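#struct-pred
JK: can someone run the complex with cytidine-5'-monophosphate? inputs below
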Amino acid sequence: MLPAAPLETSPTATPDYRPDTAVGQRTMLAPRDAKDRLIVGLDVPDTRTAQTMIDRLGDSVSFYKIGMQLLFAGGLDLIPGLLVDGKRVFLDMKLLDIDNTIANGVHSIDNLDVTFTTIHAYPKAMRAAVAARGDTGPGLLAVTVLTSMDDSDLTEAGYSASAVDMVTARARDATAAGMDGIVCSAVEAARVRAIVGPDMVIVTPGIRPAGAAAGDQKRVVTPGDAIKAGADYLVVARPVVTAVEPAVAARAIVAEIEAAL
Ligand code: C5P
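RT: done, structure tokens with the ligand placed:
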């Protein structure tokens, strides 16, 4: 992400939906307030449904995640409108590729002005992403172990480590690579915080308010407990976007976050 250039001095100045990065991109990765700590995953089938959801959520949500489902259904088109409305965007790419392709992918994502994107926590891939991001690109989050996986899923995939050991090892690798944050379950958040220190961002999916269906998620934690464990941001999709009243569900999660801070 480039610092916003004054329109009057450059014919190629950045569009006016770009956030003001004068304070430095890294500073911008912190939550602006309690509401900002809730990142709603727009896991819906198309942009029309997504826009309806965004409209229904209104000012109850300030941060959205666009992931695989919406990405392949035109989701990138929603980003400028979200930025104009003062929302932040997390583009959940979960990149893993050869170094050259990772670097070029990060350069392309840089032009989208999103706050975060994700890289699988393989050291070479993370180093390539960090080198490509420079000082002003998107915040880079390391995906450690998916929250839908437990120890037996890792064994099946050929890994001998437990989920918690793999998460902590990958958090160390992400820190060494210069990543900006970690994606893990809140089950591991306290251990990860001890490894990465206070400045790295911890983002936790697998969040379920008390009584909500876990679905395919295995390492689940309530919003309040995730905040108490040291998570900076909580990613929540189905408990909000499939709720009868999504804004009510979102506000309840934000209230739980506020109470836990
Ligand atoms: O519906 P639910 O709240 O379980 O959705 C969680 C979201 O977070 C999904 O979009 C999923 O792709 C994403 N995610 C995750 N676990 C990770 C990384 C991302 O569940 N480790």
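RT: quick notes.
The longest strand covers residues 88-95.
Confidence is low (pLDDT under 50) at residues 1-25.
JK: thanks, will look after standup
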